[in-house]
Amino acid sequence: MGTAESERLGDLIRRYRLAAGFTQEELAERAALSLRAVGDLERGVHRAPRRETIELLAQALGLSAEERGAIEILTDRARRPGPVASPRSVLPPQPTSFLGREQELGELADLMQDPGVRLLTLLGPGGVGKTRLAIEGARALQGDFGDGVVFVPLASVRTASLVVPTLIHALGVEEGARTAGGEAVIGALRNRNVLLLLDNLEHVLDATALIARVLHECEGVKILATSRTVLRLAAEHTYTVPTMQVPGAEVASDLSVLETVPAVRLFVERARAAKSDFVLTAENAEAIAEVCRRLDGLPLAIELAAARSRVLTPTVLLSRLSSRLDLLRGGATDVPARQQTVREAIDWSYQLLEPPQQQLFAELAVFEGGATLDAIEAICLPGAPVDAVDLVGSLLDQSLISMESATEGAPRYQMLDTIRAFAHEHLERSSKAEQLRARHARYFLSLAGEAEDGLLGENQQHWMDDLDTEQPNLRAALSYMLAAGDAPGALQLAGALGQFWVVRGYLDEGRVWLEAALAAGDADAATRAKATQFAGTLAYEQGNLDDAERFYLAARQLYLDLGDVRGLAAVATGLGNVAWERADFETARTLFESSLNLHQQVGDDIGAAAALNNLGNVACDEENLTDAERFYQRALELYRDRRNRRGAAVVLNNLGAVLEEQGDQDQARDRYEESLELSRQVGDQDLTAALLLNLGDLALLDGKLGRATALYEECLRLADSLGAKGRIASVLERFAAVSAAGGEYERAGRLFGAADDTRERMQIPWVGTDRRRLEPFVAAGRKGAGEGVWQGAVRAGRSMPLSEAVAYALARETASSHDPGPIGADR
Question: With 70 as the cut, is the pLDDT of residue 248 above it?
């Protein structure tokens, strides 16, 4: 069977396959080729297959000598045109092993093997490892290309006019054809099946017209490019090279896990190259993990840091990272200068920016933890006659910032900390640095004030999430105001954040900021009163009743001087809570009734609902369940009318407790679960902990000890992270109850002792429901252990520091194993 002069190789192979009655899959299997290889041949992607491939196809198809010859004629013809010798450029050998990029290599291969991807640009900041990933990816793919891979390094090419000569040299174009310029490049590639690796294109973007032409006229060519900026070609697909995975805080103590984390693997290997006896140990593990985190998983930064291991231990290295750009230098001398220091790597990108872009890049260092476009415009570009979208987009294109997409709301623009350190140096040299910091502080003060109102309405979760996201910027604003002597501003901002700190459980941090702001200087009485009130609320949430009372009384005097009825109502609630925790129910009731009347005077339904809820708490602890349920239902109606989910969650929890006391555990569980869903929605950590405790109690009373333990463990970890000592004491009592129910009587005694000591020191007596729930377990423990052993265990528990007691409770599962399965709906 012959072939027409004009017939394509792919058409010929397809004709032979159909004549043999094979599908592409069947031919691929018979010829021991990939399905993609057969498909590429028939589509004409590969015009000049290797002779081994031809032989495999001929055998699988059972071709005659004449038919085999027809394939060889077309293959030879495809190889002849173009003034090309064998390519002179091969993939450069790498002196170090390639670590921790298995996932990226797989993703790169999938993209390059997609027939629809002809041009793939690897994007990322300097030092992220684009070139190395491209080289290793090309090495793995070179078997897919009949004419192999051509590596074209362009970092040293200073102008676009030199790109063509560089390509001609890399392609091995014959001497006589070199004067044809771009035509010589096209001629060299037109009939070849080549992967063209163009490394470092960001500074010669004018050469993209030639790249577009290659893609249009040379069907067998694919291009893999590395760049710090997009090429903006229609055929371009992009892949942003991520930084290396860094260890989470929870794995630093587990060497078997830590040594598998890519950033740590890289650090340890490069450190061992600098110091042959370097090993990852329990002593240096946390420091190494933190170094990798602080360096954002940036491979170049990690390699340069690890090279310092010859003279610095990981702990000392970590302590010196505040001046990271000076420390991270001294790389290998056989790599480009821009890869010998982190500063040079970033400066390479910085120098490619236009002056307005350089200015914005430096000014973005004023933000901590990123910023929205609105914030960037307001702080860095107020009233500027420029398009912020274009300026920010140019920095995004240059890989100097990244965009974090949001499912709701505006995206955020972030800088790696190492890049931000470089930008910060330029900001410090700017005459606008102080002005920018002041503008930044005022912007976030305004945001916190807007959020303060929003926290009381139906958009609670939105505002809570926004403030959580902006925590680094809010901290920076507070720090600036305190350092600048702006006590009024600091107090105003701290007071605006008070409710957020309470709900999201930033109790310790909130107290630090509030007390620092209160000590910083004078402010107007209203601002000082609100800040003092929230200092009391945070102390109360921590179980620090004496401090809470002191702050509340100081706030009450300020509100009295101001004649502020709303403020007096809020303080009455706070003082009532203190009295309630001390089981002084008569005083608590009087204060809550006063709070209710004052809130009603000013038409504050949310405040009135809180007072009604608190009156329900008093009635509940006095075992007046009818009144308690009535107060709670009135409070729930007000909260629901105002679409206040957090308030509704609080009341639903309390209604659950009433139903439980009335013996309706199924209805109680329903209320707790509804409340837990709402509390998780608004991110109320303390309430979430309370609900986990209550659901755990129901499981405990049902004899489901495994289920109860799982709920208590989550509750204890959460309460410990919040520093909520009163809640910790309650959970320790529950762990003791589980231990007693499981026959571990001495352990139960220790845990009861630790909880009792904490209650005593914090002046929080057992009241109401807790006593009735837990006293049977205390009795069981005392009886099971014997009085002498029990009392000894209780004494031992009372002598344990609280942190030790928490660790003891979480150290292992109890001996009981009833219902050890998943928590399910009770979570």
Answer: yes
SS (H, E, C) 781-823: HHHHHCHHHHHHHHHHHHCCCHHHHHHHHHCCCCCCCCCCCCC
Do the beta carbons of residue 229 and residue 399 sit within 8 Å? yes
Which DSSP letter does residue 261 get?
A: S
Q: State how far the alpha carbon of 174 is from the alpha carbons of 88, 90, 109, in Å.
A: 11, 17, 32
150: enclosing H helix or E strand: strand 149-153
**Gyration radius of the chain over CA positions:** 35
- Run of H or E residues at 199: strand 194-199
Instruction: Provide CB contacts within 8 A for 791, sequence distance 6+.
Output: 749
Read off the pLDDT of residues 53-65 as tens digits, 9 standing for 90 and up. Answer: 777 888 888 888 7
Q: Is a pLDDT exceeding 80 seen at residue 72? A: no
φ and ψ of 381, to 5 deg: -130, 40
For residue 126, which phi and psi values (nearest 5 degrees)? -60, 135
Burial grade of 784 (CB within 10 A; 0-12, 13-18, 19 or more)? middle
Task: Kindly tell me if the per-residue pLDDT of 769 is higher than 60.
Answer: no
pLDDT tens readout for residues 520-536? 888 889 999 999 999 99
Query: What pairing do the DSSP bridges indicate for beta strands 412-414 and 371-372?
Result: antiparallel
- Residue count of the chain, please give it: 827
SS3 string of 469-487? HCHHHHHHHHHHHHHCCCH
Q: How far is residue 437's CA from residue 360's CA, in Å, rounded to a whole number? A: 14
**DSSP helix/strand/coil, 406:** coil
Strands 402-404 and 236-240, by their bridges, are unpaired
pLDDT digits (tens, 9 = 90+) for 324-360: 666 665 545 444 544 446 777 777 777 878 898 899 9
Of 119, 133, 140, residue with least CA distance to 223: 119
